[in-house]
Amino acid sequence: MKRGFWIVMLVVPAFAQDTRVARGEKVFSTACSVPYCHGPNGTAGRAPKLAGHSFSAAALTNTVTNGIPNKGMPAFGKQLPADDLSAVIAYVMSFRGSSTTSSAASPAAAPQSPGKSAFFDATRMGGCSKCHELEKRGSPVASTIRKIPADLRAIDVDTVTVSAAGESSFPAIVFEQTEKRVRVFDLSSQLPVLRTFAPAVVKLTPGSSWKHRDAITAYSDAELRDIATYLQSAILK
Amino acid sequence: MPVVIAGVRVAAFTLLTTLASAQSDPATHSDWPSYGGTHAAWRYSALDQINAANVKSLAPAWVFQTGDYDNGLQSTPIALDGVLYISTPNNWAIALDGASGKLLWEYRYQVPADSKPIAYGKQNRGLAVSHGMAFLGTSDNHLIGLNQKTGEEVWRVNIEDARQCGCNVTGAPLAVKDMVVVGVTGGDSAHRGYLTAFDAKTGRTKWRFYTIPGPGDAGHDTWKGDTWKYGGGSTWMTGSFDAELNLLYWGVGNASSDLEGSKRKGDNLYTASIVALDPDTGKIKWHFQEVPNDVWDFDAAFEQILVDLPIGGRTRKVMLHPTKGGYIWVIDRATGQFLKAWPFAKNINWVVGITETGKLVGRKEPEIGKTTMVCPSVVGAKNWNQGTYSPATGLLYLPVQEMCNDLIARAEEVPEGSAFTGGNWLMKAPPSGKIEGSVAAFDAVTGEKKWTMPATTWIMASVLSTAGGLVFTGDPEGNFFALDAKTGKRLWNFQTGGGHRGSSISYSIGGRQYIATPSGWGSLVGGAHRGLFPDSPPPRAGSALFVFALPEGAK
Questions:
Q1: What is the H or E stretch that residue A23 is in?
Q2: Which pLDDT tens digit goes with each residue over B223-273?
Q3: For B131, phi and psi rounded to 5 degrees?
Q4: Any chain B CB within 8 A of the CB of A79?
């Protein structure tokens, strides 16, 4: 009798939990993964990845029920029946430890300084970030920015002139030069192009006609001052 | 028997070749040179060796397992001179011998380790091939030019840092003239959409067209304040091109935030529009906006099928444009003039109708904090998977879904480069109580439905039509099948073992016709299957290219 009681205690809750997780999976797939948010099985769409993460039941319940204001996470407490709500929470809790992939920090939505906005300006093509990576954003075409000269236009960049078979010579930054291949960032393009050549068909000559000032004509004097201020603070970090 | 088949084939082939050359060849023949078949995006093959009479003998010729089992296989193969080129979700490009399936080369792009989780999911709908190059768009927003013969990297360009824009490439690039043109996702992020053209040989930027006009440009005043900077307008699918008119067409995605449009009052050009660009300069020649101030995420991103049809007593150069909202928009592709719109789905309630001049009537606007039941759903009466037009039947064949959703709009602050949906969606069945999917055939001129082939669940694979009187597609249950193009009757079926979310093609080598289809379930939308069809077994993942042909003796 006593033994039978324990079997009931252990087995039934586990079975009930499995059923709730299964129901939660279905709720998740129609409410949370589609069309864009947390992705199939919580593997991330545009919203953070949930798979492989641990959550406290209290925090998860609060987030799912009340949402996160201004962060895109809806308050499902008003949208889903209570049973579905608890099922989807059980399902997300089941992700714990299911994967070892790294955290999906959502990008900071902190207000940006004017200089930072200009540096990473996505509304025009001629922005700094097409060649510079800073604070884990932008393209690392140029080497890491370590000091800020007074005049951003007068920066001296180590470039070469590339003469390749069948085309006019062009200015470039050397990315890789081995016996097997030569790779350079072609600076004659609005967006720098990493081009690969066989060493036999290409010749590199130090220096070029390329000037930093010509690459940043999209910016006004005031914007460049803002950018310099931002760079100082970013490098100090 | 084989002798008779061969005789029929030769006769029909000659006739079709003649017809095709008279209309600048929108059908494919031995090759499948571009994403939509040709630049006209018919997805129609003039090959007829495999036909309604013999398709029952169709059998696998070979199968290629890509080895990339992350998110299914959506790629449309490109077939050129006997070689197939495909791509996979983890940015692998693969070239295969089209007759044997032998691997010719493989290129695997490495996403930098410090990149953030990839927005819009890892999915890749195919390569473009031209000028001795194969072009691969990547999940972290690069475009890569590969040597077509060897697969070696020739150039790569970062279109925009994906960590910054929250956008990436999921659609196939389009090779046009001496360029490759590629769109990006980002329409549900705080992002200003664009289309970029690169020189095929060098990767140098040719032009960029911003889908949202900047200060001083015509149309800028259709946005309030700074909303133009974050207004979406992605270019995530592949466009079409009319060489005679020298016009490049691209479908522009929804406005952002998706469901909450009060801060961006106005038409929000050129979101949810077709734009026609001068391919040489990237300048806009005309636009037609289907959904002004979109608040349902009703993209205009899907295929533009370029066809000449008799309308109003004369033959017009039109584009047929199927959309999420359940209408086929018929637009004069020379001028952008609206000609008509006809519904291809039953459950449509976001508008009451469309006027003779193309204006929406009776919009059902989501209200902040309230639940609004809208049909079709955000997945669309049709998703990105493409339809096909057959000149042999005059029919347009579409994958159709009858499904709705509850929209809950919400005011959101701008998170630059991150999700900016302005609310959320809860998928649900239409009032009839059942989510239904089908392949349906419509008269391309009148919109009259000719037949429907109901799916077990839904159809999320593209459709292919051929001069053999056949229509091919696949279902999530793993079946790849051939329908009679005139009646919709299922003539042949093959279980591939993986759900279908890709695009089949046809090509020929040495006089033998092949049908190729990707197999393997995946994608963001595909993830909804279990919840939408709880009583059906979940689709099987996988990533294989299945290639079929008639047995050698039957040629």
A1: helix A2-31
A2: 999 999 999 999 999 999 999 999 999 999 999 988 999 999 999 999 999
A3: 55, 35
A4: yes
pTM summary value: 0.90
Query: Cα separation of B198 and B236, whole Å?
Result: 17
- Give A167's contacts in chain B (Cβ within 8 Å): 202
Mutate to test the interface with B, among A21, A25, A26, A30 (most CBs of B within 10 A): A30
- Quick: pLDDT tens for A5-63: 343 334 445 556 778 888 888 888 888 876 667 777 777 666 777 877 777 778 888 88
Annotated catalytic residues of B are 297
Chain B residues touching A71 at Cβ < 8 A: 415
Interchain contact A120–B (C-beta under 8 A)? yes
Could you give the ipTM of this predicted complex? 0.92
8 Å CB contact of A129 and B229? no
Say if strands B44-45 and B464-466 run parallel, antiparallel, or are unpaired: parallel
Distance from CA of A121 to the nearest CA of B (A): 10
Q: How far apart are CA B301 and CA B238, in angstroms?
A: 8
Q: How far is the CA of B223 from the CAs of B263, B268, B301, B322, in angstroms?
A: 9, 5, 20, 26
Cα–Cα distances in Å, from B534 out to A134, B165, B502, B530, B542? 47, 36, 23, 5, 21
Decide if B425 touches A, using CB distance below 8 A.
Answer: yes
User: How far apart (Å, rounded) are the C-alpha atoms in residues B78 and B507?
Assistant: 9
Cβ contacts of A131 within 8 Å, gap of 6 or more: A138, A139, A141, A142, A192, A215
A2-31 and A82-93 helices cross at what angle (nearest 10)?
Answer: 100
